[in-house]
Amino acid sequence: xxxxxxxxxxxxxxxxxxxxxxxxxxxxxxxxxxxxxxxxxxxxxxxxxxxxxxxxxxxxxxxxxxxxxxxxxxxxxxxxxxxxxxxxxxxxxxxxxxxxxxxxxxxxxxxxxxxxxxxxxxxxxxxxxxxxxxxxxxxxxxxxxx
Length: 146
Known about the structure:
By secondary structure, the protein is an alpha+beta fold. It is built from six helices and eight strands.
């Protein structure tokens, strides 16, 4: 079902916001690969699998300039929560990297040639009530859907 929905969103240029598994699914569905298990496949230097509560920062990401995420949140370092054990390994040629963690993992992507096809590795839905960046990201997505 997810594949069908993503295919239709891309075909109709419908906005979507992928979260956590969403970034992994989008990248893998359109040709990228994943680290299946970060603890055994990647030398993590930051906490990518935090303990609750999830509405607080776990590590920083660098949002790259000239990306949709930079338009929404601003380029530079931002704090995010983190709760995942898989991540993008090889980026699909159909997506653009928008953010990276302090230890080099891809933390946000946008699908090329789409109006708003954004996916992040962190969880803005856990912190949208108390985190300005999460509020801005969710608000931007909702506004694109109007």
